[in-house]
Write a structure and sequence with these properties.
191 residues; alpha+beta; 5-stranded antiparallel beta sheet; 6 helices; 5 strands
């Protein structure tokens, strides 16, 4: 009787412990997979931004603010980059213009300290909260095309690609990952 009870309790204890270990391992693997997908998705943003910011015509636009050039090149890039917002700032961090879809109506939301960081790193990626929700932002300084590898010319301005982290963004990740992504409010996290 006593031996059988101890044996049963031991088997039960180790079964629960093993289930917990399997669960924790699966959870960690899934978390790594989701983080890898987000990282892979953001690498496209870095590639896209490099295509835009080493462009002589873009440097000229910062100087001239030619609306014809802007309308021919920037709004059409929203779909190309699967972006919700494309923002342009001058060399002093002053807002010049933006193109966005209906997901983002905010105009000038890039934090001012970002401009100092971009000057040293040339490309920066970060998350912020705006009235519409959380956004993933990739930003870079704008330079002439001859400076793509040297990075010696001063910044002519700054370009930002923003993606709203909404249902559509996560649905794409869910499809790729065959999973369901959801957020839960945790300790110390604001809405």
């Amino acid at each position: 009787g006593l031996f059988a009870t101890c044996l049963f309790c031991s088997i039960y204890y180790y079964t629960i412990k093993q289930e917990n270990e399997v669960y924790q391992t699966s959870l960690k693997q899934f978390d790594n997979e989701v983080n890898s997908l987000i990282e892979l998705n953001s690498q496209n943003d870095i590639s896209n931004i490099v295509d835009m910011v080493y462009w002589d015509d873009f440097v000229d636009y910062i100087k001239t603010k030619d609306s014809k050039w802007f309308n021919a090149n920037i709004p059409t890039s929203l779909d190309t980059y699967k972006a919700d917002y494309l923002g342009i700032y001058d060399a002093n961090g002053k807002f010049i213009n933006k193109s966005s879809n209906a997901n983002i109506v905010s105009v000038d939301f890039i934090p001012k300290e970002v401009f100092t960081n971009i000057n040293t790193k040339k490309i920066l990626q970060f998350y912020i909260k705006i009235p519409e929700g959380y956004v993933l932002i990739c930003g870079a300084s704008i330079h002439p095309s001859i400076d793509i590898y040297k990075r010696v010319t001063p910044s002519a301005g700054y370009f930002f690609i923003a993606k709203l982290l909404n249902k559509a963004y996560f649905s794409e990740l869910e499809t790729i990952n065959s999973s369901k992504i959801d957020f839960q409010k945790g300790a110390g996290i604001e809405n």
